[in-house]
UniProtKB/TrEMBL annotation:
Residues 205-232 form a coiled coil. It holds the Pfam family Vps54_N. This is VPS50 EARP/GARPII complex subunit. Residues 707-941 form the Syndetin C-terminal domain. Keywords: Coiled coil, Protein transport, Transport. GO terms for cellular component: cytosol; EARP complex. Residues 43-334 form the Vacuolar protein sorting-associated protein 54 N-terminal domain. InterPro entries: Syndetin_C, VPS50, VPS54_N. The lineage of its organism: Eukaryota, Metazoa, Chordata, Craniata, Vertebrata. One of its GO terms (biological process) is retrograde transport, endosome to Golgi.
């Protein structure tokens, strides 16, 4: 550290050969005589920086100190100064080294001695170690080592066994995964429990303690998977799958827990199923709408179903719910079968199994009603989510069909009467039906106002059962059968005895049937033309006009065959029949073809539709039957107002309208007919009523050539009678559907209204009869006859011939009309009866106008009347002749005594006061005194004559 580097800066190193050795150099330096004080001053004059550290760059330092302008002399002086300083430092160092040299030599000797001792110690240690090695090899390795190895071997053998078990335990993890993939849950649980038992033996190994916790996790994982497997049985029940799941729960000792979980899954399955079905349809119909349907409540989602997708969605909904209920049904079956199997080892092992079985049974039975309630509520929300009042009828019937079938499922599932479903569908039905019936009544009015009362050509064997609308009455297995299935036919009994759950246990779905039912509909009721056989029609007229066998074609001498169907008609028409009936039943070729119009057919179809709805939906049966009665009421009222209303009834004493018919017509007018359509009355009341219909302008009833529209009158009246007959045939069917409390309404409707249909014939055909024959002309002719003659006449009066000619003309015109429309026997009888009664009453009126009359005149009256009767009987088959006694009794009354006349007046109230007065004045006037006559006339005045 005392080495001064000054000398290195400026003094070049001496030549190696000339360079002295260090000791010599030191000595030289020491020998140089320098004043110690001066030497110390030189050393002190050295800058402090030269003593700082070894990294100091002295050359750089000195160069930096040089002034900008160099001076050689100054430089040399400065260099000499540095040299002096270096020389002083070197000398000082040399002195110090020389002072310490003896101590250094002494220490070096001690180190050499220590090295020698160490080498000796190393030799001793080597010898000791060699001797210890010999001892170890000879004693420890041969005896103690042998014992140690033996002990180690024994431990390792035990360890190996444990390791093999551990290896097997660890491999079970893979096997468990495989078993779970194979869905062998009982096997997996069995294996897991065995592993846990084994693992508890080796729990002292850290790896095993980890394995034990892993096995516990695996067991929990198996339980989770088992729960998922259990949930799968809610939609598609599989016996093998369910058996495995139940066995697995039994092994876990969680049978009751499984049952609780199962019911929770069923509830969830119902919710998820209906939500997914409805969501699918809503999203499908919504297209690319941004609405977040996924997040909607199910109830709100149901309101987004479109009318087009309503029925497919409802069907799919019921199909999906059926799958869930069928799975539950099959689950119950499985448990019943396994309860009966006493051989089950799992059940026999513990007393708890009896408790478990009892719990499971109760839980399942309780679950039936709960699940059905869930189903009902879901379907109710769907039903009430849409306003069905604008549905097409067929679509609405399909909805009712599906719900009816669902209610049948409910009854078989848990004996439920499905009050929730019934209430919701009843609400919709009443709403729909009011809307529908109102529209149908308006439609019926339009039909009636456009009806020209032409014949609708149907086949002779036409029956309402052939119409689509009445097919349901013969289909016991159709979905429209109500749950009670009261009217099962003998053909359908075998199938009906099987419940839906038995019929569709393994495949199929009860909600697929109505589609097939719809496709099967075919209807063929119309004839190819208005007549079923033109040849037949011709021959009837020939036979009628000529009464000749030669004019009847040969084929008519046998029974004719329906040309459309090839079947013989219900009532075959033979030649004898034609001959025997020719004068009364016109146009016999159509004896079997019902007389009805398009409007009649429309009403019948409507009745069928209404009955379909009623058959499916018993709760609104009364509402429907009430509406059915309104259809008939309106038709009857229309026929009456078009063809039968006449003010002259009251003046005639013929009793044309019975009190029952009048009551019915008044009732219809008050309850159904809207009197002033323009007046704004109560809205609700006006909704229930229909304006009175108006006859089409195309129908002319004033033309004498057509017998005052007789063809139209026959079609209208007989179509009403036909309609009444159809109603009669349906009475028993309607009666079974009516609630007991409402049955009197139905009975009254039939007894007061339906049965009065044929009574309309009298007033309607009376109008024709009153105009068809000129009764006024006859009265004028009779007024010109002299009755106070004095001799018996052998020739009748001209007025009789004129009257008979009128009847012949009437007969001919009837035949003309019958070429277009068949005139049934009851109609021709009513017409003839009216004409004859009017003629007879005209005769009596004519006789009552006589001022003077002799006994010979009375005989002439009888002669005239007998001539009239004789010729009339050839024209008509009507027997007896109506009102024959009315005329004969009046003529014979001229011969009565005073006392007999008084009794006659009391007993014969059918004669008018004028007619009775004439008997008193003309007959008895010459035989009795004035007082007696006045007494008899007073008796006539006193009699209160009710019009019959």
């Amino acid at each position: 550290h005392f080495f001064c580097p000054h000398s290195m800066l400026f003094c070049p190193p001496p030549h190696p050969r000339l360079q002295p050795t260090p000791l010599e150099e030191l000595r030289e330096l020491r020998e140089q005589p320098i004043d110690p004080q001066a030497e110390q001053e030189i050393i002190d004059s050295i800058e402090e920086v030269y003593f700082s550290n070894d990294a100091f760059d002295m050359v750089q330092h000195e160069l930096e100190k040089l002034p900008p302008e160099l001076n050689l002399q100054e430089l040399e002086e400065y260099r000499d100064k540095l040299k002096r300083q270096q020389a002083a430092v070197s000398k000082k160092v040399a002195d110090l080294i020389l002072e310490k040299q003896p101590a250094y030599v002494k220490e070096l000797e001690r180190v050499t001695a220590l090295q020698t001792n160490l080498q000796l110690a190393a030799v001793i240690c080597t010898n000791a170690r060699r001797q210890l090695g010999v001892a170890k090899e000879g004693f420890t390795g041969a005896s103690l080592g042998l014992l140690a190895n033996q002990r180690r071997r024994h431990l390792l053998t035990g360890l190996l066994k444990s390791l093999r078990t551990i290896k097997t335990l660890q491999r079970t993890d893979v096997r468990l995964s495989e078993m779970l993939e194979e869905e062998d849950y009982p096997g997996a649980i069995q294996l897991c429990l065995e592993c846990q038992k084994a693992a508890s033996t080796f729990k002292h190994y850290s790896c095993i303690s980890e394995l034990n916790s892993k096995l516990q996790d695996t067991l929990e994982q198996i339980e989770e998977q088992l729960d998922v497997a259990l949930s799968k049985t809610c939609k598609h029940f599989d016996v093998a799958h369910y058996t495995k799941v139940q066995l697995a729960y039994t092994l876990l000792g969680k049978t009751q827990t499984a049952m609780d979980q199962l019911h929770m899954h069923f509830t969830q399955a119902i919710h998820n199923t209906v939500f997914q079905v409805v969501l699918g349809y809503v999203e499908l119909c919504a297209g690319n709408a941004d609405t977040k349907f996924q997040k909607m409540q199910y109830k709100d989602l149901c309101t987004h179903i479109t009318l087009d997708s309503y029925i497919p969605c409802l069907t799919d909904l019921c199909k999906a719910l059926w799958e869930v209920m069928l799975s539950y049904h099959r689950t119950m079956q499985w448990h019943e079968e396994h309860d009966n199997m006493e051989t089950s080892p799992a059940a026999a092992k513990s007393g708890d199994s009896v408790v478990d079985r009892s719990y499971v049974k109760k839980k399942l039975e309780h679950g039936l009603t709960r699940i059905w309630q869930d189903v009902q509520l879901k379907v109710k929300a769907y039903i009430l989510g849409t306003d069905m009042s604008n549905f097409k009828y067929d679509d609405f019937i399909v909805v009712l069909d599906v719900i009816s079938r669902l209610m049948q499922v409910g009854e078989e599932f848990c004996g439920s009467k499905s009050e929730v479903l019934q209430e919701s569908i009843k609400w919709q039905s009443v709403n729909y039906f009011k809307h529908y019936h109102r529209a149908r009544l308006e439609e019926l009015r339009m039909f009636l106002e456009n009806e020209t009362w032409e014949l609708c050509p149907v086949k002779s064997n036409f029956n309402i059962a052939q119409l689509h609308e009445f097919k349901f009455m013969g289909q016991c297995r159709s979905p429209s059968v109500s749950p009670s299935r009261q009217a099962a036919s003998s053909t359908g009994l075998a199938q009906e005895e099987l419940s839906l759950f038995q019929l569709y246990l393994l495949e199929g779905n009860p909600f697929e049937m109505h589609i097939e039912h719809k496709e099967e509909e075919t209807e063929d009721v119309l004839a190819s033309n208005g007549y079923e056989s033109d040849e037949l029609e011709k021959c009837v007229y020939q036979d009628y006009d000529n009464d000749s066998d030669s004019d009847v074609p040969e084929e008519l001498k046998q029974d004719y065959v329906d040309e459309q169907t090839g079947d013989a008609p219900l009532k075959s028409v033979s030649r004898e029949t034609i001959r025997s009936k020719k004068k009364s039943d016109y146009n016999l070729n159509k004896a079997n073809a019902p007389i009805l119009t398009n409007t009649t057919l429309n009403v019948i179809r409507l009745v069928g539709k209404y009955m379909q709805m009623m058959n499916i939906l018993k709760p609104i049966a009364f509402d429907v039957i009430h509406c059915v009665s309104q259809l008939f009421d309106y038709y009857l009222y229309a026929v009456y107002t078009f063809f039968g209303r006449n003010d002259m009834y009251e003046s005639s004493s013929l009793g044309l309208i019975s009190s029952r018919l009048r009551t019915t017509l008044n009732r219809i007018q008050e309850s159904l007919i809207e009197v002033n359509a323009g007046v704004h009355g109560a809205v609700e009341e006006r909704k229930e009523k229909v304006p009175s219909p108006h006859l089409s302008q195309l129908v002319v009833l004033t033309n004498s050539g057509t017998l005052y529209g007789l063809a139209q009158r026959v079609v209208a009246t007989e179509s009403l009678v036909f309609l009444a007959e159809q109603f009669e045939s349906l009475q028993s069917h309607l009666d079974t559907m009516m609630p007991a409390a409402k049955k009197p309404f139905l009975q009254q409707f039939y007894s007061q209204t339906v049965s009065t249909a044929s009574e309309l014939r009298k007033p309607i055909y009376w109008i024709v009869a009153a105009r068809a024959i000129d009764y006024e002309q006859m009265l004028l002719l009779m007024a010109g006859v002299k009755w106070d003659i004095r001799e018996i006449m052998s020739q009748h009066n001209v007025y009789v011939d004129v009257l008979l000619k009128e009847f012949e003309q009437f007969n001919k015109r009837l035949a003309d009309v019958s070429r277009h429309v068949r005139i049934p026997l009851p109609v021709s009888n009513v017409l003839w009866e009216h004409c004859i009664r009017l003629a007879n009453r005209t005769l009596v009126e004519g006789y009552a106008n006589v001022k003077k009359c002799s006994n010979e005149g009375r005989a002439l009256m009888q002669l005239d009347f007998q001539q009239f009767l004789m010729k009339l009987e050839k024209l008509t088959d009507l027997r007896p002749i109506p009102d024959k006694e009315f005329v004969e009794t009046y003529i014979k009354a001229y011969y009565l005594t005073e006392n007999d006349m008084e009794q006659f007046i009391k007993n014969h109230r059918e004669y008018s006061m004028k007619q009775l007065a004439n008997l008193v004045n003309v007959c008895l006037g010459s035989h009795i005194n004035k007082k007696a006559r006045q007494k008899l006339l007073a008796a006539i005045d006193d009699i209160d004559r009710p019009k019959r």
